[in-house]
Amino acid sequence: MEGASKSNINQEKEIENSLYKINNIFGYIIIIIIINKAIALLKYLIMRRRKKNESKMFKIIKEDKKKKNDNKEIKEIYHIKRNNRINEIKTIIKNYIMIAIITFIFINIFLTIKSNILFDQSHFQNSKIKLKIKGPSKSSIFGNSEFSYILHNNIQNVFKINGIEQNLSNHNYDFDQIDNSVELIFYDNITNCEYMFYKCSEITEINLSEFDTSQVTSMYYMFYGCYSLTLLDLSNIKTSKVTCMISMFFGCYSLISLDLSYFDTSLIKDMYNMFFNCSSLISLDLSNFNTSKVISMYNMFANCSSLASLNLSSFDTSQVTIMTSMFHYCSSLTSIDLSNFDTSQETTMNNMFSGCSSLTSLDLSNFNTEKVNSLYYMFNDCSSLSSLNLSNFNTEKVMDMENMFNGCINLEYINLNNFNEIYLGEFKFNYQNMFYNVPDNIIICIKENITQTKIFPQIVNKNCHVID
Asked: CA 418, CA 204: separation in Å to the nearest integer?
């Protein structure tokens, strides 16, 4: 695989070089054509002017001949003027030819310098990545697959490691690790950061303040599995062209804070698993997130068990179709404001708040569930909730409510006034353990004239209070 990668990189370089040479040849041809056309146009204008002058001169001579036949003086004057004009034209042509030659030489020099800059790394205006490593030995970092994505996937871009130029034709890296620090210098043409730090479990700090991401279109799995990462500087990162941030910070469970308030997410379509398993995160600033094009938020904050608060007031969820496990086991969240959430396109809310054991209140009065087909485990283990008003929930298309309220051990009141009647045996409907581990004396509010046996047969034996 490594040999194939090297071969592909070399082939890409050869193709790029050949294309540039072809481009230069076409440039020269175009320049020569333009010069030839300019000279031809100049000659045409000069000839036209000369004929006009000659016509005037012959007219004068003809008139003078009438007055004075065979006047030698007039003839001599005519020949002198004509010769002078011819010399002037020759001088003009020579000057224009010299200008054309000098212009061509300067263009050729410019293209040559440009070509040298393109293929000589030392002339690049470069961007940098600064890293801190846990281990004292470089072999534990650059000698395994955990760090390979940075270099192997961007080998055509990396040309200096800790100030030492690298051989771009192979993967033999030569550098000295200084105080567990590594500095990578890249070209400025990086467009893809997918898997860039994938499973770099030895990195403790990443500084991207001098790294140019202005042309990057994907940050898919960028910091996935950076288990030891405690400091991440993204203060100058550019994300205006990025369309995908799937699993971007997945498994960064040593990160304590993350400020993404300056992120431009206007083109992002997928954010699922974005912060999955960031279990130490206590501060997350998403105050300027634009999510108007996002269609999936599956597992977005799942297992962010240290987050006590989350501001999602900037979120536009009008295009989101999947919110499954979005806040799964955010066990430190005491409250969350979702009043701006538009769930009109939502189809699945499975496990959405499952494991949010510290939530004491939850207002979902604005939720639109007309298209939702599954609600299983939605409030599973929300053990601090004492009441829940779901009177606005339309469950007409819902086919699965398994363990929906399982483990809500302190739930005293629940309003299901808009839940649709379920006729057992008419179609397959999964309601198993829907109220498993809820208090026996829970008050359940349901539709008028609908008996509890038709809706929730598994609570028939509970000592609950059903209000029509």
From this structure: 51
Residue 215 backbone dihedrals phi, psi, to 5 degrees: -105, 5
pLDDT, tens only, 330-373: 999 999 999 999 999 999 999 999 999 999 999 999 999 999 99
Rounded CA-CA distance 5/67 in Å is 93
- Hey, CA dihedral for 135, 136, 140, 146, is it positive or negative? positive
Tell whether 164 is covered by a domain: no
Residue 267 lies in a domain: no
- C-alpha separations of 61 from 50, 79, 100, 181, 370 in Å: 16, 11, 39, 92, 101
Length of the chain: 468
Encoding tokens for residue 33?
Answer: 């054509």
Determine how β-strand 413-415 pairs with β-strand 387-389: parallel
> Global pTM?
0.68
Residue 459 DSSP label: G
- 97 lies in which domain range? 2-119
CA–CA dist 303, 277 (Å, integer): 5
For the cut 50, the answer to whether the pLDDT of residue 194 exceeds it is yes
Tell me how far apart the alpha carbons of residues 135 and 144 are, in angstroms, rounded to a whole number.
13
- For residue 63, is it within any domain? yes
Instruction: Kindly state the DSSP code that residue 428 receives in the 8-state scheme.
Output: -
Token pair listed for 155: 């080998």
What DSSP element (H or E) covers 403?
A: none
Distances in whole angstroms, Cα of residue 118 to Cα of each of 21, 143, 165, 189, 259: 12, 30, 16, 11, 36
Structure tokens at 239: 């994300």
Distance CA 115, CA 18 (A): 11
- Give the Cα separation of 96 and 41 in Å (integer): 12
CA 273 from chain centre, in angstroms, equals 15
Q: Token digits for 79?
A: 């020949």
3-state secondary structure (DSSP) of residue 204: strand
Decide if 233 contacts 210 (C-beta within 8 A): no
Task: Quote the pLDDT of residue 246.
Answer: 96
- Strand 387-389, strand 203-207: pairing: unpaired
The phi, psi pair for 61, rounded to 5°, reads: -65, -40
Instruction: Taking the CA atoms of 18, 20, 24 and 29 in sequence, report the sign of the dihedral they define.
Output: positive
**29: Cβ contacts below 8 Å, ≥ 6 apart:** none
User: What's the token pair of residue 13?
Assistant: 């370089």
Please indicate, yes or no, if residue 76 is contained in any of the structural domains.
Answer: yes
What domain count does the chain have? 1
Distance CA(315)–CA(340), nearest Å, equals: 7
Contacts of 83 (CB under 8 A, 6+ apart): none
